[in-house]
Design brief:
There is one protein chain. By secondary structure, the protein is α+β, with helices and mostly antiparallel strands. The protein has one domain: Ubiquitin-like (UB roll). It has a 5-stranded mixed sheet. A hairpin with a 5-residue loop joins β1 and β2. Bound molecules: FE2/S2 (inorganic) cluster. FE2/S2 (inorganic) cluster (FES) binds next to loops. GO terms for molecular function: 2 iron, 2 sulfur cluster binding; electron transfer activity; metal ion binding. It holds the Pfam family Fer2. This is 2Fe-2S ferredoxin. One of its GO terms (biological process) is P450-containing electron transport chain. InterPro entries: 2Fe-2S_ferredoxin-like_sf, 2Fe-2S_ferredoxin-type, Adrenodoxin-like, Beta-grasp_dom_sf.
Length: 107
């Protein structure tokens, strides 16, 4: 599966062959994408994996659940309408080609 991820440094990373089930946080962290920290290890408890999903992909990626939404509130100053926590978005076939941009750290 293909994912394009832009780091906070503006560097665009294109990944081919991403395995189904891999989260965007894992993908970014394993590949050193700037701005993806994943401090809580994917537990939806830190928001350091915050990404903006490209508008055209948001519907397919889905909306955050209640817990994720509560975490996103903590980074409300940099939250956008297509914000998601990268650890809560796992790759699946219909997301092949997904494009996301890493969000800047919250103030
Ligand atoms: Fe902590 Fe996603 S890695 S919320």
């Amino acid at each position: 599966l293909k994912v394009t991820m832009t780091g906070v440094d503006g560097i665009v990373h294109t990944f081919e062959d991403v395995e189904e089930g891999t989260s965007l946080m894992e993908l970014g962290r394993q590949n050193g994408v700037a701005g993806i920290l994943g401090d809580c290890g994917g537990g939806c408890a830190c928001a350091t994996c915050h990404v903006y999903v490209a508008q055209e992909w948001y519907a397919r990626a889905g909306q955050p659940d209640e817990i994720e939404h509560a975490m996103l509130d903590i980074v409300a100053d940099v939250m956008e309408p297509t914000s998601r926590l990268g650890c809560q978005v796992r790759m699946r076939p219909e997301l092949d080609g997904l494009e996301v941009t890493v969000a800047p750290a919250s103030a």
